[in-house]
Write a structure and sequence with these properties.
alpha+beta; Immunoglobulin-like; 3 helices; 9 strands
Length: 139
């Protein structure tokens, strides 16, 4: 688990609320890591829409994470030494209200590489979402 916590220092996630064009303050994020995506971390976004303090656990297995990991492997993507798979869930149903959204949960599968900082920028709305990933080599 410590290996993944070291990676968290090099992961920056920012989420913007499309309705208000402002940070998605209070949105709950769950991040899965590990070979079987069974280690997970949770946080809520701060007033600027950034993730900071992650709480960790290994007691939960996500069926969705397992399915997405399997789909990732079926594409024959090879994992290089120093790469790790991560699976991010955004609880948009609670954030927007289940009656006001078509997208109850946003799920993003991505890779991180040792020696690089990873920046995920996500825009969420009640009906859609978009994201981008940037990798920056550390000096």
């Amino acid at each position: 688990m410590e290996e993944y916590e070291n990676n968290l220092e090099h992961l920056s996630i920012r989420v913007i609320d499309l309705r208000t064009s402002s940070p998605a303050h209070g949105l709950r994020l769950t991040l899965f890591a590990g070979q079987e995506l069974t280690t997970f971390y949770q946080t809520h976004l701060d007033i600027f829409g950034f993730s900071h303090t992650w709480r960790s656990s290994t007691t939960r297995r996500s069926l969705a994470a397992q399915i997405h990991r399997h789909a990732f492997e079926q594409r024959n993507d090879r994992m290089l030494v120093g790469e790790s798979i991560w699976f991010l869930q955004l609880d948009t149903g609670t954030y927007f209200g289940y009656l006001d959204t078509d997208v109850e949960q946003v799920e993003i599968l991505f890779k991180m590489r040792r020696g690089e900082d990873c920046y995920l920028d996500v825009v969420v709305g009640p009906r859609d979402y978009a994201f981008g990933q940037r990798m920056v080599v550390r000096n």
